[in-house]
Amino acid sequence: MNKKNILAGIALLAGLAVPTLALAAGDGKHPEAPAKGWPHEKIIGAHFDRAAAQRGFQVYKEVCASCHSLKLVAFRTLTGIGFSEPEVKAIAAGFTVPGEPDPDTGDVKDRPGKPFDHFPSPYANPEAAAASNGGAIPPDLSLMAKARPDGSSYIYSLLHGYRDPTAEELAALPGGKLAANAHYNPYKSGHVIAMAPPLQDGIVTYGEGQPEATVEQMSYDVATFLSWTAEPKLEERKRTGFFFMTFLLIICGLLFASYKRISKRVLGH
Predict the structure, then answer these.
(1) What distance in Å separates the CA atoms of residue 12 and residue 19, rounded to the nearest whole number?
(2) What total number of domains does the chain contain?
(3) Same-domain status, 200 and 243
(4) Cβ 120 vs Cβ 113: under 8 Å
(5) Using 50, 70 and 90 to split pLDDT, how confident is the model at 141?
(6) Are 85 and 113 part of one and the same domain?
(7) 95: Cβ contacts below 8 Å, ≥ 6 apart
(8) Domain range spanning residue 197?
């Protein structure tokens, strides 16, 4: 393949990728990362801020779980962000999940959750979810951080990005106004979101020695937690990738040294 064909192929791939990314991002404001960045997004030494992830779980449990599910996450995996097995058992027992059908009647009775259970949905079925939310079904949050470009920053920005629109921003909206029960958020595609601001300063109480539960802090913590639920093996994957790349570099160096040594013998220079 000549150089022109290679460049044409790269241009074609870029042309296909750009519209896809634009559609995914919509016309919302580009997400902004917190000043301290995301430790789990580092190339070397990537790690989840476990204290933040545990606080994010607390916010999810006390605020978000009333509307949003985490159906792909099992309680037992919470050990991955530093909870002990007894703590996981206590957390699981605090949720109610459907039990096994009665062999005689077929009735299903609820029971306390166990570590092998997954987080239950707050609604009995999609119809109930829609009926409770004006026809819109709250999305499952298990993979939310991977479902959006710049997922961690998107969640962080969206949660603390609610504000009143300026006169110019309001005029740019369809009809020049916010619809009833709609809210302005520049990070949302279309800048309008049906979900009311879920966080308020002090809506949860963090434990002793933890930072103050401001909207910005909770947004960071929830984004960290949901980044972990979306990819709980990220740290292991990045460590493996770093080891593999280091191994390849060493092999390449040895092969090059061998090539130089052999060519010197064969060619005499």
Answers:
(1) 12
(2) 2
(3) no
(4) yes
(5) very high
(6) yes
(7) 75, 112, 113, 117, 119, 120
(8) 35-229
